[in-house]
Amino acid sequence: MSIFKASLNELNSLTELFDSYRVFYKQESDIEGARAFLKERLINEDSVVFIAFDESNPVGFVQLYPTFSSVSMKKSWILNDLYVNASARKKGFGEKLIKKAIEFAEETGAKGVSLETGQENQTAQRLYEKIGFIKESNYFYYFSI
User: Fold this and answer.
1) What are the C-alpha distances in Å from 7 to residues 13, 26, 31, 58?
2) Domain boundaries, the chain
3) What is the fold of 2-131?
4) Residue of 52, 51, 48 whose CA lies nearest to 65
5) CA 141 – CA 33 distance, rounded (Å)
6) CA–CA distance, 80 with 37 (Å, rounded to integer)
């Protein structure tokens, strides 16, 4: 198992994983759209992506987006995307990817890592809480188009 920060060198592997991730969330497959989206994120350094390999096979990724806290005057990271191929699940890749994200946040002096998940996603919630994430109950989440 190896996990490292993705670059344009891993774009093809990352594109396939990202497309599978989107399909998992009921989106139409769009390989070229996924490639263009990821390429732009990597070139512009809009996000940081870590990719996991099982030997030479790409099996998962985590994507982080930066945000900032005016109150603490620090950067934070949003763990926006986490995906592990079905064939590699329950082998520790998801946990290792999340821990890599946390390690990266610490290395960059960030305030922390935040994430969100669906109320029905009990499996992910157990994993997040096992790693040390705390379910926020003091704030409401709002969204507008």
Assistant:
1) 11, 27, 18, 14
2) 2-131
3) Aminopeptidase (3.40.630)
4) 48
5) 29
6) 14
Phi-psi region of 92 (alpha: psi -120 to 50; beta: other; left: phi over 0): left
What are 74-107's pLDDT values in tens digits?
A: 999 999 999 999 999 989 999 999 999 999 999 9
Instruction: Assign 31 a pLDDT band (cuts: 50, 70, 90).
Output: very high
End-to-end alpha carbon distance in the chain: 40
Percentage helix, strand, coil, to 5, in the chain? Answer: 40, 25, 35
Q: What is the DSSP-derived secondary structure letter of residue 111?
A: S
Return the SS3 of 8: helix
Contact (Cβ atoms closer than 8 angstroms) between residue 63 and residue 47: yes
Q: Rounded distance, CA 30 to CA 120, Å?
A: 26
Number of CB atoms found within 10 A of residue 83's CB:
20
Q: Please give the pLDDT value at position 142.
A: 85
> Does residue 126 come out as left (phi exceeding 0), alpha (psi in the -120 to 50 range) or beta?
alpha
Q: Alpha-carbon distance 72 to 74, whole Å?
A: 5
- Residue 93 has what pLDDT? 95
